[in-house]
Amino acid sequence: MFNPPYQLALCDRLPKKNSKEFLYLFKVYGSHDFVKLSHADILASNQIMSAINPRDLIKIALLENNLQAQRKRCKVEAELRGNQYRIHIHGNSETCSGESICQNIDYFSDLSAQDICKIAYTTGFLKGRNFSRQFSAAAVEARRRNTAAPDAASKVLELRAVKR
Question: At the top level of its lineage, which domain of life is listed (predicted)?
Answer without folding.
Answer: Bacteria
